[in-house]
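Each field is listed here:
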Amino acid sequence: MDLGALTSGLLTGLREGVEAALIVSIVVTYLVRTGRPEQVGRVWVGTGLAAVLSLVVGVVIYNTVGAFKEPYEQIFEGTTLLVAAGVVTWMLFWMRRQARSVKGQLQAAVERAVAIGGSWGLAILAFTAVIREGLETSIFLVGQATSNRAEAVWILVGAVVGLAFAVLIGYGFYRGSHRLNLASFFRWTGIALVFIAAGLLSHGIGEFIEIGAVGNGPWTATAFDLSGLLSDETGIGSFLRAILGYSAAPAVLTILVHVGYLVAILALYLRPVRQALPPSSPKPTTVTARS
């Protein structure tokens, strides 16, 4: 068992799964509390379809990568890794901005769905709400598995475990348990995913360096070689590779990209969220009585 691959998949499945689980639990809770429990089944239909489609997309992408020959395999793998890093980066900042208002937006969307599409409108709402999370998870996991094909099965196992925990958290939210500090949860798992995304990004750049797509120069030279001290194929090095994108002999450009991404994205992600200022009320007009 590769503990690094298992942990990497678990973090991804947990983080993304919690977002989807909370979306579904908010919708279901709202329906039950507004006296429409008979319509909850439509929500599960939409959720199930979104989950199946996300799984199919992930399997197709992953199997397609292995069908290419050089240099097209490296191009496809590199592109997949870059897309995966981009998707998780966008997702982190989207969730950061929307976290405070997502509950109210979903409840309003439930009312619109019922008014426009009837009960089947709820299935469409659940599908569209979950499919984004599902496709993001699928693409991100494919990126992780592509960067470490030998341990792809452990990444998948970890993701399944993470998703199972996410379902339990969603159920706990539905049952009214608020012991989990969701703000802290998303903040710390978000930081972990920033480090994982940095590894995917630098590994993707490495694929293009391998086929000479970025030219030859000092930037493609090996920055250092720690293979004899800490190999990235076994033991702790393999764990660090799965979690942080560690490479025992990285190119200069991959180091620059990796460190630059971490510094820039962490600085942006950890900065305080601006809160909208309440509208200023007009100053009262003072009337001076004339004698």
Q: What stands out?
A: Residues 276-282 have pLDDT under 50 and may be disordered.
